[in-house]
Structure formats: structure tokens, C-alpha cells
Amino acid sequence: MNIIEIKNLTKLYGNSIGIENVNLEVKEGEIFGFIGPNGAGKSTTIRLLMSLIHPTSGEAKLFGKDAIEYGPEVRKDIGYLPSEIFYYDKMKVKDLLNYSASFYDKDCSKKIKELSDIMELDLNRRIEDLSYGNKKKVGIVQGLLHEPKLIILDEPTGGLDPLMQQKFFNIIRDENKKGATIFFSSHILSEVQELCNRVAIIKDGSIIEVQDIKTLRENNYKKISILGNNLNKDAFNLNGITKLVQDKDELKFFYKGDINAMIKTISSIEMRDINIEEPTLEEVFMHYYE
Amino acid sequence: MNIFKQEFDMKKKSIIIWSISLMAFMIFYMAFFPTLTQDSASVDSVMNSFPEEMLQALGVREGLSLTSLKGFFSLTFTMMQLAIAIQSANYGFSILSEEERELTADFLMSKPVSRTKIYISKLLAALLSLLITSIFIGIATFIALRLFNAGENYEISSVIKLILTLPIFQLLFLTVAMFISLLFKKIQSVLSLSMGLAIGLYVVESVREIVDNNILGYVTPFYYFEPGTILLDGTYDLKFIFIAIGIIIVSIASSYLLYNKRDIHSL
């Protein structure tokens, strides 16, 4: 069964395009990644699903029901974490969580306790006194306290330290094991790779590709830059090297292929410094167009 | 019910502050009246030395001398109406826009509630807040009239009639401000807008008195519920009550449509 079904969904803001003709299907039990650079239309798509904004054309169905017409009904089973977290400043954390729980016809107190223990969230503090990361934790707890069947996360990890990020990912994996479907937007490739089964790539308001995460892993580019005197561009004639540029005493290129072959080549030359890193998403996209 | 309660809780402090200051205003202002009557002849002569237009602009009318209880009280009550208009417009401009400005709308609207329910809950919470303020003003009015009437008689029935216009007056400013707030993408300064609307319409009423053009009065609620007229005649002008209710209904309905269709943008 498809939990999310988006058909030809378009949202225009005046003359500028939010998203255009987006088609997407997310199956029950998936952890689905939604990845793209900032401004690509990730949030627009998610806000359409939550009926915070209204589509120009096309439709979105959640649990087989129209997201706008049956909005209040389908949202009973959705937990949503927006990318920017803002709550009623004057409230205490526990009052906000109880207010959040009051929208659902079930007792959420146990889940609130469980989640806030894991996330080390102090329930007695006022929202306005919280740091950005702590507000994010409040967001996570309020989004999950009713044990939703569909969890929609819009760039959830910003502001969380690596340790918390891991705890958060563990919670998400647990919820998924219990049967929840996860829809996860991000502009960071590595976190999507870590968590998701399938991933959709969006750019300039259109879906470029929907891929299995394994396929994406195989496209594992490295971005390498080498600093040194008397560097010779011609030493790098391996298969899998692209975009090789020499700028005085610096060599830069992307590499996809056997990493041992690369290390051998690198070790044969004299250099001052080396930097091997994951390409940014934009750089990965550049490869998609080639 | 939970949204209504939350909305009302957030208004509590504001209700207390408005009620106390308006009660204090009414009582202190009326406390001047006995002193004024002690030397009514000289006050009247001072007042007569002002140009007529200026007196009209202040709302002092023929047959309602400042040294009479009705005259002084109706001037006080007009000031009170101005303050109430600011409060009502303030609630109207803020209740629907504040969640978008403070970006809490994402939280509220992703819950399993319809916009209709949010809208009605917010409207009712604001209405209750204003009614509570009205009740306190009513109480203050009777205390002030009882303590500082300087021996003059007043008709309790007219005063009650005047106080009963307050909820309609409040609803009018509340719903019109709500409607206006939905015409904008983002409301930045609620306070200046509410002062602008209330004082602006008050000025229209002053201008109406000076140029003596009653058609202008249709534009401003301050004319519909003029305290002097209600106190002197002891009746309402039903025509204006109907116009007011008509505007309220249209504002509520069109705000509802706009709010349901509204796109809630993020940062």
C-alpha cells in the first residue's frame, strides 16, 4: 500500500515555481529520503502534504485519502517535524507537550516520558529559555508522542550534536521497525545514506530521480584536493577521475573507482597536504547531468 | 475546546491589564465631575469661549453641557469607546496573524484539526475576552456614576442600554480587523494597525460632527453608538444596529473563507 501518493503536484508562487509536476510514491514501512539542495522544493512538497499550503494543480494522497479534503483525519496518524521550530515561548516544555497530546484521542504521557528521557529533555524549562538544539528536541518529542503511522521530517538534524543525532536516528529506526513509514527530507547526502531505503532527488522544483539507496552508494564520489610543489597533472590518468583542475600548486578532482589504485597513485608523489572529502550535494548533482 | 482554552490562557494577562486600566480610567475621570459642577458657571463660560467646531470635535454637543452629568459622562464614555476599539482591533489583528508571525502555525495546523475549528476557537476566545472586559467596564460605570453624580439624577435604563452596545461595538472592530489582517501576507505591527484603525475612525466621527454630515457617519462605528444620543433619547437607532450586525456577519464569513484558503509560509 502506498502511504504517500503524489500525482502531478504543482505549486506556483506567483510566477515563480515552488514545485512542478512532482510524482512520488512512498510505500508502507519505507524510510524514504527526500534530498535536494536548499530551495529545491523539499519544504514546499512537505507543506503541501501537511495542507499548510494549497496546490496550484495536481493532488497528494495520504493513506489513500486526499491530503486537503481529509486533512484533519489523515493528520491523526502523522507526526510532523518542521525544519524551523517555533513554539509558544511563554509555555513550559511539558505544557506544550501536553497541549500537543490533547489533540489526539489517546494517552501519550508514557511516550512523552520515554522520548524525553532518551533525548535528555528537561520538561520543566520554558520554551523561550531553550537553545536551538533543545527546541529541536521538543519538536521531535511533540512529533512522535502520539505514535504516528507516518513520520514526516523536514531537515530534522540541524542543531543536534552528533550524539543526539545518533539517538534520534535510533528512535526513527525503532519507530520504523514498529511499522511507521518515514519521509525524511535533507540536504545532507550522508545522513540520508545512513538511514533510508529509497531516495528521491529533487532539483529546481522537479524530481530528477528516484533511486534505491544502494545505487546511490555505488555512485560514491570522493572529492580530492592535493597541495604541493611541482605537481604533475599527468600523473593522474586513472579511470574514474573527472573534473581535474590544476591551480598553481593545487590539484583538484573527483574520483569514483577503486580507492586502492588511487592511494597508490597519491603515495607516489611528493605533496604538502591532502584533503579527501564527500562531495556536496550540488557536486553530486553535477554528475547527474553529465 | 483545547485550542479555545489555550487561546484564552494566552489572553488572560491582556484581559486583566485592559480591564483594570479601563476601570481606573472611568472612575478617575468621573471623579472630576463633582468639582466641575461646583463652579459650573465659569466652566461653561470657558467652554463657550472655545470655537464651536472645536467643541464639536471633542464631542461636546448642544444640550449636553460638560457641567451636566449626561454631558460629562458621555464624553468619558466616548474616550472609553476609543480605548475599547483599540483593544478589540488589537485582538482582531493579532489572533489569526500571530501564529504566522511567531511561526507557531506549523505546529497548530499539523495537528488533526480543521482550519474551521481553529478559526472558531480563536474567534470565540477573543469574544469571551472582550465580553469580560465589557463586564468590568459596566461595573466601573455604575460605581463611577454612583459615587460621583454630584446629586444629579440619571436614568439607569439608558446607561444599561449604552453598556449593552459594547459587545456589538467590540465585535465590529474585532471582526473587521480580523478581515483586514487576512488581506496581508504578513502583519508586522499589530499595535500600530489597531491604533490606526480605531483612531482613524474616531477622527472620521469628529470630522462628521464639524461638517455636520451624517452620511459620513455610516463609515464609523463611533457614530452608530454615540453615547450622547443614546443617553438623551434613551433609544438606539436600530438602523445602525442592523448595519453593524451586517458588517460583522460579512467580516466573519469572508475572513473564514480567506483563512481556509490561506497558504501558511515558512521563514
Mean pLDDT of chain A comes to 88
Main sheet: strands, sense, barrel of chain B: none
**pLDDT < 50 stretches of chain B:** none
Q: Supply the helix-strand structural class of chain A.
A: alpha/beta
The number of E-state strands of chain A comes to: 14
Note the run of SSEs of chain A as H and E.
EEEHEEHEHHHEHEHEEHEEEHEH
CATH topology of the largest domain in chain A: Rossmann fold
Number of helices of chain B: 13
What is the C-alpha radius of gyration of chain A, as a whole number of Å? 22 Å
Fourth-level CATH superfamily of the largest domain in chain A:
P-loop containing nucleotide triphosphate hydrolases
Numbering strands along the chain, what is their spatial order in the largest sheet of chain A? 6-7-8-3-9-10
Q: Give the CATH class of the largest domain in chain A.
A: Alpha Beta
Radius of gyration of chain B: 20 Å
Descriptive overview:
The complex is a heterodimer of chains A (290) and B (267). With 290 residues, chain A is α/β, with parallel strands linked by helices. Chain A has two domains: 2-218, Rossmann fold; 222-289. Chain A has helices at residues 42-49, 71-74, 93-101, 109-118, 132-144, 162-177, 189-195, 213-218, 259-267, 281-289, and strands at residues 2-13, 16-27, 31-35, 57-62, 65-66, 78-81, 150-154, 181-186, 198-203, 206-212, 222-227, 241-247, 250-255, 273-277. In chain A, the strands form three sheets. Chain A has a six-stranded mixed beta sheet with strand order 6-7-8-3-9-10, sandwiched between helices. In chain A, strands 2-1-4-5 form a four-stranded antiparallel beta sheet, covered by helices on one side. A four-stranded antiparallel beta sheet of chain A has the order 12-13-11-14, with no helix packed on it. Chain B is mostly helical and 267 residues long. Chain B has one domain. Helices cover 78% and strands 0% of the residues of chain B.
